[in-house]
Amino acid sequence: MNYLESLSKDHPNFTKDIEPSGFSQTLQEAMTSIPNEHSSNSIEQSSELSVIRPEPVFSVLNTPDPPSPWIELASSMKEKVLTRGKQSSSLLHFTLSGLQGLFPVLSWGRNYDLKSFRSDIMAGLTLASLGIPQSIGYANLAKLEPQYGLYTNLVPPLIYAVMGSSKEIAIGPVAVISLLVSSMCQKIVDPSVDPTGYKKIVFTVTFFTGIFQASFGFLRLGFLVDFLSHAAIVGFMGGAAIVIGLQQLKGLLGLTHFTNKTDLVSVIKAVWLGLHQSWHPDNFFLGCSFLIFILVTRFLGRRNLKLFWLPAIAPLLSVILSTVLVFLTRADKHGLKIIKEVKSGLNPSSVKLLQFTGPYVGESAKIGVICAVIALTEAVAVGRSFASVRGYQLDGNKEMVSMGFMNIIGSLSSCYVATGSFSRTAVNFIAGCKSPVSNIIMAITVFLTLEFLTRLLYYTPLAILASIILSALPGLIDVREACSIWKVDKMDFLACMGAFIGVLFGSVEIGLMVALTISFARILLSSIRPRIETLGRIQGTDIFCSKRQHPVVSLEPGLMIVHIGTSFLCFMNANFTKERILTYVMEDEELQEENNEGKILYMVIDMSNVMNIDSSGIAAVEEMHSKLESFGIQMAIVNPGWQVIYKMKLARLVERIGVSWIFLNVGEAVEACLSYKEDNICA
Amino acid sequence: MNYLESLSKDHPNFTKDIEPSGFSQTLQEAMTSIPNEHSSNSIEQSSELSVIRPEPVFSVLNTPDPPSPWIELASSMKEKVLTRGKQSSSLLHFTLSGLQGLFPVLSWGRNYDLKSFRSDIMAGLTLASLGIPQSIGYANLAKLEPQYGLYTNLVPPLIYAVMGSSKEIAIGPVAVISLLVSSMCQKIVDPSVDPTGYKKIVFTVTFFTGIFQASFGFLRLGFLVDFLSHAAIVGFMGGAAIVIGLQQLKGLLGLTHFTNKTDLVSVIKAVWLGLHQSWHPDNFFLGCSFLIFILVTRFLGRRNLKLFWLPAIAPLLSVILSTVLVFLTRADKHGLKIIKEVKSGLNPSSVKLLQFTGPYVGESAKIGVICAVIALTEAVAVGRSFASVRGYQLDGNKEMVSMGFMNIIGSLSSCYVATGSFSRTAVNFIAGCKSPVSNIIMAITVFLTLEFLTRLLYYTPLAILASIILSALPGLIDVREACSIWKVDKMDFLACMGAFIGVLFGSVEIGLMVALTISFARILLSSIRPRIETLGRIQGTDIFCSKRQHPVVSLEPGLMIVHIGTSFLCFMNANFTKERILTYVMEDEELQEENNEGKILYMVIDMSNVMNIDSSGIAAVEEMHSKLESFGIQMAIVNPGWQVIYKMKLARLVERIGVSWIFLNVGEAVEACLSYKEDNICA
């Protein structure tokens, strides 16, 4: 292009024979004469125009320049800081309000009363009775010893209670994250070969997860949570639930050998082999009967809300009953698998287990990013939906910071990645929690368990843990939502199914990659091919609508109105837009040759949808203008976005198109074109 | 969410105490009563309303369903086929017009006359005199023997002449593609160690390039060319030109040892080492003097267009002069590097060199994709800009098919990747070519050279080839365009600089990756944070504008108008949009408490920019509606896109919002809200 330009610049006569020179000259004369004419004569000629056209103060071109991206970023930052310390008169006050922002406990703690405390104690105990067996099961899923589940149910809830702003969320290990951690970390170090090495990886991953979460929050990258679409999450969760369920077959059937892979085919193969080698029906019958017990209590709890505590304590009850049963019958001697030793005592420090050198740091950081995003997605979804029921808003960025600190401190005290659990949050809510104190009560209960009751867990059968996890899975599989996604949006359903099938037959990462790719591809596709539609007038009004959508609208003779349906006219769609509009013009000319109708003289381009433009877009508009000019068609632009007008001014495109050919709305542009046309015909 | 839903479904009294039940009931009553009232009373009450509201035929909701994506895809395919065979009455005619589509030579060949032929002979000979030395130089850059450059300047132009639709484009090897091929292929096989293995890779890459190009064309993936933004191409080309120039230092300085890497640091290090070991000033002086000669002729050619042939034949002249000089002085015995043997004769077959098994197939295909996209980007840019000067349109997809076939057949006859060259196309154009016949003339000249003149190239110094390539580079570095990009769009400039620095200090692939990443990130960023702005009325009109852009507009009391500035309300921005709108409402309530003004009763959401929506978007609109309802605010939706209305109907969202709360334009919605408000106040 630049070569051509330099050619035509150096040799002014170079492009002369290319343009229909006679015509373009007359057109240029017409163009320069029209604005003056317009400002003086035409308003007097057509009184209608002067009524409808607004005062020149309101012209698109008279607006101030839009704030530059840097200024806008700075002002949004400032706004955030200022709202926090809005009424700060002194430095002390400012510091206090800053501390209150970081530790919400300082604000709600002052109004906390005995009545709320009573509710929180009830909720906390209910939570603990559900959380203790669940966390032992999830530790098993994460391929860690049982006490690590309890550790993770102790420190992170305490940190969240002082830093978090959600009142209902129940913090601890959850199923999907446990699966994520084990399926990705065991690719680096096999836990059955080198348990300490595996733990090192897990805690390092937890540390990185915390670091990423906190920095997402500090850098206000809250939108990262939105990168996974709702549909993708539905598919991913469904697939993960089935994968987790399949992993429980090991415990439920009492298999000794099992696969490290998580995909359907490998697991079914492993189960098939296991059933042919050695399995103990006792495990299966015990697990199944308690699974049925838990499901029945849940059914009863749903039928009668007063019995809400029944499904909540059923897992604990199952653990106690089955442990007593095994202790009495000594069934572990006949092949029933039991937990055996659970180390007692408070969380040991794991600072020395963190690895920041060596070959696995990069890999750990990568797993950390994935865990950070998935954990935040789950926690924010849980937190938001319960906050919206209670009628308050959660600040996503603040939540990220507290989740981050909770996992960083967790990684130093032998905890793996914790987040908000959906099922336990619901129990906490129904049990009537009033504040994060319920999390503290639960943590105290877990602490007491760790100190005094671990020896009682010796005889707890592994099959019971499997059945507790299995009973929590149906809530993750949301067939009804998948159906409604299919009904509303087929492409969303594709993302949903992609994630589901990817997790089920590939691995967790493959499922995530598929979901992300489909979701992003969709956004790009919608940018690549914007809708370019011709508009027509609804008779008797000043409303202009798409001819294709409303076939009854009437087109104006001698002018064409085209609407550009993208918010960002950029390199990906500028060329397409230009060519589509020029094709419309040429198709129309062909049609007119056949019908002997009037030629198009004005092309009104409705750019009210275009909020931003890049240099390719500017070039496309410029080319369109000169091309239309060479056809003898005047281009009018309607209501481009603020940034668009600003950049068109910078590129001197406004001058080339002509200030009087840029309008505030379609009606005004059509009016002006029609009146010019009449003037021309009269003259 | 589903858990909550099931809870509230199973226990109808579950959410009772959460909502301000008394209020929502009255609101619901009000909502069900309003529509009826509206259709009977309100029109009579306010005569203004009945004038402005269009006939119910024109309601947004009465339109037919939009065509499904599959139907739209099918109809666009059908359209393409039908336009090609529009007037086909018989099968024969249909086949003929299909053949004409594939081989445009069949259409223009019939009207071809002697006068055009004379022009084409002149243009073809000029082209050959520039192309022959250039292609030998580019073969050198691609680390192939000189004859391969000539081969590539023979077969692909012939194929393009019968299949291509551009009249001006000059086909052959080009600088950037030669650099791409050598820099990527030598990572697989080192050409100095295993020349045959390297050739195998190069031809396989060429074959894949052709396959990808042809399939892009057949699958109508023409938009792939738009994936590289204009800004990114400017930066990439500039960086590539400097890298190519640095590579020429080897020939210009007559160095024996040189680096295989292309980045600035490695090359400067290699040159430094070379200068300290062994270099021959003869090479440098010879190369520089002829470089100056070529540049002076170009300057003269630009000053006087009649001398256009001078820069075109200067390279050939340099080759002849320098060759004669070396032959006479036998300077090659004193360290001057010469080409030595150039194999004579027509292209040999290279079918047996193609490798579709073995370890390098995947790698070759990857390089093929990159070459295909870059080659097409360059060719389409060249073709389009000259076609637009001549006033005809190029069909990008058709061009891709012909480029693909040209490279497939090229790869079978010892050619590497060919594409349209910018500098030679310009020469072809200025020399007055009328049709692709000039490419045929050039190919014949190259054929004669290969058959009879290769022996004369024995003494051609390598430094001359370097200076010919160096002289072609300034056209690739477009500082003026980079400046204008900086002026108009800072983010575009970032992409430009990213590509430039990536190519210069990293590698060609890194530069491309950086450019692609920045460009895509920008599109995603513009989707993540749409502009949500409050609108106000321009006094005395029915035009509503952004309050921020036009501070003079007046807001209507008791209602808020918000505009959503994205064309795709999807998972990435739905949550943000919802929360931003709710924040506006809450900020406004705070403001009103201070000022004791009237509360907002109506929220008009202008969705005229929203052309598409996904399930997350639907959910966000739904949540927004119920949230606003709980605040006692009625939501009205204005002019959502066709797809949006369709999906809102499918999700039963239209019923929930209320059919009478969806309007065609903002004016109408405001009118309706104001009249309801008056009615309520009167009642």
UniProtKB/TrEMBL annotation, chains A, B:
Species for this entry: Dendrobium nobile
Domain of life: Eukaryota
PANTHER family: SULFATE TRANSPORTER
Subcellular locations according to the entry: Membrane
Highest classification ranks of the organism: Eukaryota, Viridiplantae, Streptophyta, Embryophyta, Tracheophyta
Cited CDD domains: STAS_SulP_like_sulfate_transporter (cd07042)
Keyword Transmembrane annotated: yes
Entry's Gene Ontology cellular component terms: membrane
PROSITE patterns in the cross-refs: STAS (PS50801)
Entry keyword Magnesium: no
Residue ranges of domain STAS in the record: 569-673
Keyword set, alphabetical order: Membrane, Transmembrane, Transmembrane helix
Stated name of the protein: STAS domain-containing protein
Bilayer topology: Multi-pass membrane protein
